[in-house]
Predict the 3D structure of the following.
Amino acid sequence: MRIFARSLQTVVAGVLVVMVSQGVEAGPAAGAPLSLPWLNSEPEGVRAPGAALADGVTGTMLWSREAHTPVPIASIAKVMTALVAIAGGDLERAVTVPAESIAYCVRNDGSSAGLTAGEVLTTHQLLYAMLLPSGCDAAYTLAEAYGPGQDGFIGRMNETARQMGLGQTYFADPSGLPVPTDGATFSTPADLVALGLRAMSVPVFREVAGAQFYHLPAGPGNRDHVWETTNKLLRSYPGTIGIKTGTTDAAGACLLFESVRAGIPMIGVVLHSSAGSGAVAKEDAERILDWAYDPIFTALPIG
């Protein structure tokens, strides 16, 4: 199996090298989509109006739809929130959940990790609370701690986006909620693939984003919590290792994802697959991944 995996990697890498030698730039979410020679022109049945798939090593775009059209991204914004918090250092830092984080969730009808005011969790634990159940209360809490304050933290998010070259991305809220307006936080398929590629290169983010469950036992400063991921692709599609779901009325159902099969990583995103069905976004992601992987496995059958 290891020999087979290496063979697949060699074929895919070889195709990309040839394309680069012909003048196609290979970089994070680079330029126009590149087509592997045995792939059909595009995956069939994908409902998302905005989507992309890239090689998970170089970020070279393999297929996209409206790659540079900015749209609301809902809780995929929490990927950047996690990166900024991780960059702040000290993942074992004790952070107290402010009462306003609970009010913020209720006021904006945000998804919650079930935190209560006054609980004390570590930054690492809050990352699970934010990325698995998509806790807006956890996102607000991290922003307060690492901003310091919401405005300071949002400024850090946008500065990080600028440094990463995400020129069509803007964050107005650490959770991706429609605050202050529906389209206040936005990005593009190309930018989100680049963001996901960077995030998954960070070991602690990769660990959290790939978890299906997390149990935090009751302790001196916290209640017992069990968090389950909203990313059903982790269960349904072989090799999936992340990344993040998102759903609001404005953004519809969204999914940023990465899968690794036979050692070959693919990273992609679907935006507004449906008005609010995460199952439809998951199906879109599966169709895109099958489009990429099935011809590779067919071209180099085992045995």
